[in-house]
Amino acid sequence: MAKTHTDPLKPTRKGGPFGFWTSLKLWQKIIIALVLGVIVGAVLGPNAELIKPIGSLFINLIKMLIVPLVFSSLVVGICSMDDIQKMGRIGLKSFFIYLLTTAVAITIGLIIGTLLEPGVGLNMELPAEATAVKEAPSFIQTLLNMVPKNPIKAMSSGAILQIIVFALMLGVAINLAGEKGKPVANVFESFAEIMYKMTHMVMAFAPYGVFALMAWVAGKYGLEVLLPLSKVILGVYVGCILHVLLTLTFGGIMMTARLNPIRYWRGIIDAQAVAFTTTSSSGTLPVTMECARTNLGVSKPVSSFVLPLGATINMDGTALYQGVAALFVAQAFGIDLTTGQYITIILTSTLASIGSAGVPGAGLIMLSLVLTSVGLPLEGLAVIAGIDRILDMARTTVNVTGDLMVSVLIAKSEGELDEEAYNRVAEV
Ligand code: ASP
User: Fold this and answer.
1) What's the pLDDT tens digit per position in 375-397?
2) Which of 64, 108, 154, 402 would be a feasible disulfide site paired with 316, CB 3.0-4.6 Å?
């Protein structure tokens, strides 16, 4: 008799005390967990740190998936796309849209920062030591670094761009090998399927991880920490919401792709919740890919190429945050910026966001570059650092939302979007 396995993500209707919980869909569970986490964190205060390991376990579980998932699904994606030119076109298009949306995001950040004046009249106690500036690698060096000298090392250290380059070349070579390459292509196909299943298994744990992470954040930052800097937080959150609604949803999904925005939102909510609580777009990647494929109907070749690339180079939220933060620092120190300096901020923030890794706090480190480029005091970083987690939650969510929007746009323009799947109400 054939064995039957239940899908951990499918709602089941059972009675008993947990009947209600098990009958919920995954996204409903995640939202409830998020709200409960904030309440429990507010009640427990700093003691909520005790629950944090459950959140760390969840983060480790999804991180565990990244390298094998990205690698296998990208190789399969390339193998299934015999038209190499099409891949090149998709790469160029994605890069262009990524740059464009990032530049729009930072402009929104600068406008909000100018209108809201988050730093004006702030009495900041400045610590003597400023955070160290990290040297950004040069453009040529960045390009050279994309080719792994040792692919195994690239995998063990999780260097996503290097893994992408190796997977691309491997996929092309498998195709060129013709019949002889088929067995390896089959192995990767089977392996990628298994990794998708594993992603599903890990996602069943998401509500508990999200609950623990939210409780920890809410417990750590009481109102006393947040109030003095509430205008920066407000600025970043308002900017992020505007960018997501106007640029990504209205401009991207509705006007350019001509698709239903509600379906888009419904499809990406799991990835958004995981991004919001883990503050890592690279860490969220397995969930982002799952949402794109299953809920939005983006083909495997497109999602497995465009999304890992986006998680590494496309950071709309980070760029927007850098705009608001730079103005905050200028205002707090009473420094007037010239038009040239505004343009420099746009350029360096765009580059800095491309160079930021999709890990917690990367945007803060790259902010030092932006501040240095226009001669703003780095002491401002120390102030922002105190509340960076709260800002990181918003910007990472926007980063992931942007990656997903671009994957839908590209898929639609290449005839790689299953619109029936996009418009179907998702089951989980
Ligand atoms: N945490 C962000 C991300 O993973 C990067 C940042 O710090 O801005 O997308």
Assistant:
1) 888 777 777 877 888 899 999 99
2) 402
Q: How far is the CA of 37 from the centre of ligand 1 (A)?
A: 22
Q: What is the CATH number of the domain that holds 330?
A: 1.10.3860.10
pLDDT value of residue 9: 57
pLDDT in tens, 325-336: 999 988 888 888
Task: Locate the ligand 1 atom nearest the alpha carbon of residue 364 and give its number.
Answer: 7
Report phi then psi at 298, rounded to 5.
Answer: -80, 135
Report yes or no on 39 lying in a domain: no
pTM over 0.85: no
Q: How far apart are CA 280 and CA 274, in angstroms?
A: 9
d(CA 263, CA 220): 35
- Structure tokens, 16: 């008993």
Query: For residue 316, what are the domain limits?
Result: 92-129+196-427
What CA–CA distance (Å, rounded) separates 349 from 318?
8
* pLDDT for 253 beyond 50: yes
Residue with tokens 């495997």: 300
Helix (H, G, I), strand (E, B) or coil at 32: helix
Q: What are phi and psi of 417, to 5 degrees?
A: -110, 125
Q: Establish if 200 belongs to a structural domain.
A: yes
Q: How far is CA 238 from CA 109, 241, 245, 339, in A?
A: 9, 5, 11, 24
Residue 372 in contact with residue 358, Cβ under 8 Å?
no
Does some domain include residue 275?
Answer: yes
Task: Round to whole Å and give the CA distance between 187 and 183.
Answer: 6
Number of structural domains (the chain) is 1
Determine the pLDDT at residue 88: 85
Q: DSSP secondary-structure letter at 298?
A: B
Q: How far apart are CA 9 and CA 20, in angstroms?
A: 15
Q: Is residue 42 part of a domain?
A: no
Interatomic CA distance for residues 218 and 38, integer angstroms: 5
359 lines ligand 1 (CB under 6 A): yes
Whether the CB of 283 sits within 6 Å of ligand 1: no
Whole-number Å distance between alpha carbons of 78 and 420: 24
Tell me, in angstroms, the distance from the centre of ligand 1 to residue 380's CA: 19
Convert 220-248 to b/e letters by CB count within 10 Å (16 or more is b). bbeeeeeeebebbbebbbbbbebbbeebb
pLDDT-derived band at 426 (thresholds 50, 70, 90) equals low
CA of 362 to the centre of ligand 1 (A): 5
